[in-house]
Design brief:
Elements lengths: L2 H17 L4 E2 L2 E2 L2 H16 L7 E2 L1 H9 L3 E5 L3 H4 L8 E2 H6 L8 E5 L5 H11 L5 E3 L2 H7 L4 E2 L5 E2 L1 E3 L13 E3 L3 H5 L1
Parallel strand pairs: 3-7, 4-5, 4-6, 6-7, 10-11
Antiparallel strand pairs: 1-2, 8-9
Helix pairs in contact: 2-7
Length: 185
Amino acid sequence: MNRRYRGIALIVMGFWLGLMPKIVLGGEVLTDPQKKEIVYSMYEDYRKEFPDVREISPQMAMKEMALGKILFVDTRKPAEMSVSILPGAITWEEFLKDPEKFKDRRIVVYCTISYRSGKLARKMANKGIEIFNLRGGLLAWVLEGGKVYHSNGKETRRINVYGEKWDYPPKGYESVRLGFFERYF
């Protein structure tokens, strides 16, 4: 194949990959451990904006969840939450109605990769409300083997990835990308 056609093929492939989930890097399919590394790396970059926020790893959260010591608080929009949520999660609004009601549990906020929740946790810490941010968010949770549930309470293998940049679900999961209106309004 000559250079011209190779260039056209690369452009077409790039366009195609831009519309498809990011599962290929250098011509190879990404493994779940590679995806996990990417997700945690992105999270660490975001964490620079809220370095003093306390965080909890998905593994530790799973252990504490099994003991009934955690309350997950989802900071995403309702349309995102309708795709999947963490076990027993409540909305941010529900938490704010009566934070004292949950004082006997560790409050763990999350979003797709825990950027939005980290910024919110920083604001709350400044107001004296101590909450933890889930390291790597919903993506890290499922990449570490955690389960997610549909709003009807049934386990699901669908996960809202917010956008192409964060499209790293584990093998066997379906990525859902909501439209602009659903994400922001």
